[in-house]
Amino acid sequence: MRYCAILAAVIWAGLATAQGWEDRQVFGTGDAPLRVLSSTDTSFFRPIIEDFIATSPEVSVEYLVTGTADLDVLFRADPTAYDVVISSAMDLQLKLANDGFAAQLADVDHPDWAEWHDSLFAFTTEPAAIVINRAALGDLPVPRTRQDLIELMRAHPATFDGRVGTYDVRQSGLGYLFATQDARASETYWRLIEVMGRMDARLYCCSGAMIDDLIAGDLVVAYNVLGSYAEGRSETEAALTVILPSEFPTTMMRTALVSRQASDRPVAEAFLRHILALQATGDATRFPLPPLAAGDGPVIGLNPALMTYLDKMKRDTFIGEWEDAIVQDD
Predict the structure, then answer these.
(1) Residue 13 pLDDT more than 80?
(2) 20 falls in which pLDDT band (50, 70, 90)?
(3) What span, in angstroms and rounded, lies between the C-alpha atoms of 313 and 235?
(4) pLDDT value of residue 293
(5) What is the pLDDT of residue 298?
(6) pLDDT at 15
(7) Distance (Å, rounded) from C-alpha 202 to C-alpha 216?
């Protein structure tokens, strides 16, 4: 089994060293510092931060990017070190809020289905996608469903051998969320993972790495890529074709919370409120992520059922079954 390089381990000694971050940038020069811990690429959040600083020039924002699983570990280790936490792993975020790490915000004008106990707020809806390198696929038909993809890989193994990618659910919080939701929706998921295992699938930490390898031609197809990232890259990369499986969608909501132990609660709350207000404008220049959209098919619910697969026994069982399906060493 070939694996992608796993992100360098975050060295934690009170505060993580700068070398441990996927990205770290500071915006503004104000005297009121705000530390934002996030799994969202800086390119998507730069306009949002700059828009906030334009209205609050007294604030400087340190934006720290890491993977969804590492984010959860880092914040739990020291909730005083970060003011706002943003992640695509809804289940881990909900557990943080449920465990008392999130502050409650009063009088937030937000849809009931997109918030939990006034402490966790969703601000995007983003589907998981199948992404194809159309040139690498050649004359083969573009799969429109998971079953299409299964049949295509079975019929043309030489095309796909070693050139199929998906999340390593042991390393990625978002990958684990997508996988458990897929498995709850249909047994097709397990058949797909077994076939991907026979194709010597490559396992990834994050959507960006999968998309990079698709563009390079190292992959023919990647499964459960974050649709917003894929759509963004496909606008400039003609090789990419983004498919939202037609039989059932897996759509998550990106969420944010304010740390209950934030160093400056009013500034942190103002930043979160600014995010929510921006998404509601529909202005893609100021908010370059997909906004909340209740009518775009079923969305993973922001409710306690999300935490089912975070139970240690259930997680261990799921990971074991996933490994048996996809890690098929000779």
Answers:
(1) no
(2) confident
(3) 42
(4) 87
(5) 78
(6) 39
(7) 14
Residues 226 and 150: their CA atoms lie apart, in Å, by: 20
CB atoms within 10 A of CB 284: 11
Q: Where are the beta strands (DSSP E) in the chain?
A: 12-13, 15-16, 23-27, 32-38, 59-65, 84-87, 115-116, 120-122, 126-133, 164-167, 202-204, 221-226, 240-243, 251-252, 255-258
Backbone phi, psi, residue 133, to 5°: -90, 105
pLDDT of residue 248 exceeding 90, the answer is no
**Domain 12-125+253-299 annotated CATH 3.40.190.10:** yes
Contact 228, 126 (CB under 8 A): yes
CATH superfamily of 127-250+311-326: Periplasmic binding protein-like II (3.40.190.10)
Under DSSP, the state recorded for 259 is: B
* Biggest distance spanned by C-alpha atoms of the chain: 61
Residue type, 280: A
> How far is the C-alpha of 124 from the C-alpha of 129, rounded, in Å?
16
The pair phi, psi for residue 259, each rounded to 5°, is -60, 135
Better-predicted residue by pLDDT, 326 or 3: 326
Q: Is 120 left (phi over 0), alpha (psi -120 to 50) or beta?
A: beta
- Give ranges for CATH 3.40.190.10 in the chain: 12-125+253-299, 127-250+311-326
From the list 272, 283, 302, the residue with the least C-alpha distance to 109 is: 272
DSSP string, 189-237: HHHHHHHHHHTT-EEES-HHHHHHHHHHTS-SEEEEEEHHHHHHHHTT-
Percent of the chain with pLDDT over 70: 93
**Summary mean pLDDT of the chain:** 92
Pairwise CA distance, residues 149 & 312, whole Å:
32
Q: How many CB atoms lie within 10 A of CB 151?
A: 14
Helix (H) / strand (E) containing 77 = helix 68-77
Cα-to-chain-centroid distance, residue 325:
23
